[in-house]
Amino acid sequence: MILSPETIAFLMAAAFMAGCIDAMAGGGGLIALPALLAAGVPPVPAVATNKLQSCLGTFGACVAYARRGHMDLATYKGPVIAAFIGSIGGAWLLQRVDPSILAGLMPALLIAMAAYFTFSPKLSDADRHARVGMWGLSGMIGVVGFYDGFFGPGAGAFYTTIFLALGGLSLLRATAQTKAANFASNVAGLLTMVAGGHVIWIAGLAMAVGSITGGQIGSHLAMRFGSKLIKPLLIIMSLALTTKMLLDPKNPIHIYLFG
After folding, report:
1. DSSP tag of 43
2. Distance CA 112, CA 241 (A)
3. Contact 33/49 with Cβ under 8 angstroms?
4. What is the pLDDT of residues 119-140, one digit of tens each?
5. In whole angstroms, how large is the CA radius of gyration of the chain?
6. Mean predicted lDDT score pLDDT of the chain
């Protein structure tokens, strides 16, 4: 598929915004994937190409968080591995069924997530007691990994919610661990999509430039301002994007989900 220079520039700008938001709160795919669909990319190649740009952008955010000591891969290697394995299964299934089956659940999940962040009084920059063990946490992260491989948008925000609500991590550390899990699921999904021949390489690599730049800016903003920035951004992103998907008949996600 050949895209015009203007379309490539549009996709790079969308990827920049997505990378910045994804590094702070997750959910950047809710910007990047609609941009690909709006550019006329079919659903499965759009998901595959989004995986490429997101993979590189998330890696940059991982490096930024790790350098500042907010990421603990030794302790949380189980959830990272679970995200990788789950994503392989989701990406494999995507190439065989209609992704709108799972995509239709996304608005309800986003509303529930926004409600959690709005009404939970315990979100802070300090760790809390974990509600589940590492096996349980890994299982839940694996489920989100499956969703990330199958469709993807909002997966980062779902990872963050699980690390917060069940893992007991602080908002900043949950965001940092989310980047590790998200990178793992992105890599797994990308490899599976590459094997299926669905990636549009020129668009994906161009978007990766914007995503990496945005990811660096977003990660530094998150580390500087912590929960004061991350929590309201998660709420606003969840509600605004859900409303846009459901109410705007011209929005590509609305068309994709409801026809």
Report:
1. H
2. 13
3. no
4. 655 555 555 667 788 999 999 9
5. 17
6. 79
Nearest-angstrom CA–CA distance, 24 and 157: 10
Task: Tell me the backbone φ, ψ of residue 126, rounded to 5 degrees.
Answer: -120, 140
Other C-beta atoms lying within 10 Å of the C-beta of residue 38: 18
Interval 154-208: pLDDT, tens: 787 788 889 988 888 887 888 889 889 999 998 998 898 888 888 999 999 999 9
pTM: 0.73
DSSP string, 132-196: S-HHHHHHHHHHHHHHHHHT-TTHHHHHHHHHHHTT---HHHHHHHHHHHHHHHHHHHHHHHHHH
Structure tokens at 9: 């520039």
* C-alpha 171, offset from chain centre: 16
Quick one: tokens of 244?
A: 């846009």
In three-state form (DSSP H/G/I as H, E/B as E, the rest C), the secondary structure along 211-230 is HHHHHHHHHHHHHHHCHHHH
